[in-house]
Amino acid sequence: MAITATKGQVGLTGNAAVAYAMKQVNPDVFPAYPITPSTAIVEDFSSYVADGEVTTELITVESEHSAMSACIGASAAGARVMTATSSQGLALMWEMLYIASGMRLPIVLADVNRALSAPINIHCDHSDSMGARDSGWIQLYAETVQEAYDNTFMAVRIAEHAKVRLPAMVCFDGFITSHAIENISLLEDQEIQDFVGAYKAENPMLDTDNPVTYGAMTLPDAYIDFKYQQSQAMMRAKDAAVEVMKDFGKRFGREYGLFDTYRLEDADTAIVILNSAAGTTKVAIDELRKQGKKVGLLRPRLFRPFPWQEMVEALKNVKAVAVLDRADSMNAFGGPLFNEVRSALYDLDQRPKIFGRTYGLGGRDYKVKDAVAVFEELSRVVETGKVETLLKYITL
Amino acid sequence: MENYIEVRWHGRAQQGIVTAAKVLGEAALRSGKFVQAFPEFGPERMGAPVRAFNRISSEPIRLHCAVSDPRYVLIADPTLINVVNVIEGTPENAVFIVNTPKSPKDMRKELGLEGRSGVKVFTLDAAGISLETIGRVMPNTPLLGALAKATEFITLDALVDNFREGYAKKFSEKVLEGNVAAMNRGYGEVKGE
Question: A195, A180, A173: which is closest to A122 by C-alpha?
Fold first, then answer.
């Protein structure tokens, strides 16, 4: 990795930036089973281990199921733990994801978003992390290399927050972000150490003076109470996220919120969209604004927990909203983001009209013209007061 | 639309065009620009056609879609010309730089660009230069030097300085200076019409 600094900026791929963030955090344990397109995170991080730049114990395992299992064991033992995966790798971690969150272990996982097989495809969509959306993990999403880097630090703080104690996923787009070199401002190691602080595990298993049990059998007299507490912790993660993002902004001057908005204040129509495609949409918005069209964007950053009250507040004056999903939940009622946003708007007396579009699966390009076409559909909805097609695929 | 320079690199896997896009991006960043450098991945096998892209701008770059109408096209392997559509999407003021011993005039004909008077075609024997300077066929490095000569958005100095500073740890002195010599000769030997 060649780092050439100009005006405090360097050029790094998303993978290199996130691996570097993990180096700066210097976790205790990093179990890993590399998979495209997140492979370079593990490659870079293992170089940091080999070169003695971190004190991390790197555990190479034989599958992602084992990687997450090792994360769980190490985290329960009292270690600060990180790992990275994509696609089938996250899918293979499936049952262990629920165990990590149920045991309230603040593991941080970088998920480099990639489509799920079949047919096999290595390119970007959000099927992997969206499939894990109900697994009890906090999920942060990022538009750029810079944001993926910054989110890695914030994820550590939110996950380990005393009122939360839940695992967190840092999601960013495979290839589009993971393999693209972009300008990024790096923070100093000491700034990161001050920001994340020393990790103090809650009830670590290796504290033999205070023995504890993790993941014990619970019968109907206790299971739901565990789940209730977990659910409450997830709700508290929203306030924790706000607190952590505010502190990040204060320290480093980069302001982040639960979601990002662009020219939304006076917008008649808006697109809601995750990750890198939001940047392309912003370019479309500037073009349409030049023509006098009042269009805007909302890009969720925190998807789990879903900050629905705040989102409703931001969208309530818009006349029509299109929610664009880079994943299909194959339920005939739109993608995961569409489901959430539409449901959140239900209680409004004056609801915006809303439709859902599935785009960009398996890396299909989403261009400025695609965003423009959605805005054109939205303006027809505003004109006629009718949603002609509630759901459909675009970028076909 | 926002003001970008867009570049498309054509080559075959292992010819170094992904690295070339990376080096160009880093050198432009070093000159104070905002950059993107990204490859297009397909099936991973040696010799398969690959493409890589750059966006370079004075403003932060928000576009995250593919580069579809690049003004600058660099072709590291002339045998690709009949395999992939290397002129796809190029505008009327496009600039082509091709690794070939042939003349720009012959190459213009081969590319099917004879009617397009606004289009410039440059050629250099990048493979031959790299063989002499680096010791193996690495057409990407002389192509970078040629790009600096044929266009104005990157200087040879920025390319060389970035390479010397950024890759001193990665390469031996001999390889490093071989690459610098390749850039210099690419700059000096490229011809265009």
Answer: A173
Q: Is A296 in contact with A318 (CB distance < 8 Å)?
A: yes
Q: Does domain A260-393 have CATH number 3.40.50.920?
A: yes
Return the CATH fold of A9-252.
Answer: Rossmann fold (3.40.50)
What is the ipTM metric for this complex? 0.93
**Nearest-CA distance from A122 to chain B in Å?**
9
* Cβ separation A175–B64 shorter than 8 A: no
Q: Are A341 and A297 in contact (CB under 8 A)?
A: no
| pLDDT at A73 (0 to 100) | 98
Percentage, residues of chain A above pLDDT 90: 97
Per-residue CA distances from B112 to A347, B116, B117 (Å): 61, 9, 12
Q: Are A93 and A65 in contact (CB under 8 A)?
A: yes
Residues 132-161 of B with CB under 8 A from A: none
Residues A381 and A353: beta-carbon distance below 8 Å: yes
Contacts of B56 in chain A (CB under 8 A): none
Tokens found for residue A103: 């045991």
Contact B38 A176 (CB under 8 A): yes
Concatenated DSSP letters of A275-337: TTHHHHHHHHHHHHHHTT--EEEEEESEEES--HHHHHHHHTT-SEEEEEESS--SSSS--HH
Instruction: Give mean pLDDT, residues A340-345.
Output: 97
- State the SS3 of A150-197: HHHHHHHHHHHCCCCCCCEEEEEECCCCCCCEEEEECCCHHHHHHHHC
Residues of B in contact with A11 (CB under 8 A): 22, 25-26, 29, 35, 37
Task: Enumerate the domain spans of chain A.
Answer: 9-252, 260-393
Residues of B in contact with A177 (CB under 8 A): 64
